[in-house]
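Quick log. Single chain, no ligands specified.
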Amino acid sequence: MIGLLRSLQRTVAPRPLEPSRIRVGDEVLEVVFRRHAQARRLVLRLNSTGTGVLVTVPKGVSRGRALDFTERSRSWIEERVRSRGGLIHLTPGHILPLRGIAHEIRHVESRRGLVTVDPVRGLIHVPGEPEHVKRRLLDFLRAAAREDLAKASERYATLMGVRYRRITIRDQRSRWGSCSANGDLSYSWRLILAPDYVLDYVAAHEVAHLRHLDHSPRFWRLLLTHCAGAAKAKNWLRAHGQEVHRIVT
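-> predicted structure:
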């Protein structure tokens, strides 16, 4: 019986540690504690988008001790936050990279109307109540992403002789796009913030998966045959991909 109880104790998952927050300059970052049975020491890093802190906590280490470790690592966190640049909010005055080109967000003193873009002056005009600017701008960006990605996907589907079932626009943080076995394409709306050739490449990449659901030589041969800017786009994503995740929604 004692052996059984000990076995059950080992298999019971530890209670999740309550997250915290830390202020760095004008920003407040969420601190997430993740307990890891094999970890031998506390480890701290920024998350993949640089908008939060992840702390790996070994077995037996309390939340208080992990929180103290986070505070003692404040200078390291501040340095990393400075190096990745500040966050961009969907509010008037912030600069948004629409299709890779910087645009300033401006609020229009009008209760009605559509979000419009002035490419010559580099402005995005958002009408409506001030408290609705963020929502209206995000809706505009998602709709623009859907339109551009639908056009690119349709073009490449025709070139590659394949068909897709539907397109879904999400806020995927770990990948720019995906293709399911049943022909569904899913893309990150943040691609509308990247240069046109980057969005074009991601669409070509996912459509090519409709014929080859892998990254075999046949897949790359098909992709590179129809997407001449693939290498340039891959380099941009590698160098600047995380920058579009600085936009806070």
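The mean pLDDT is 91.
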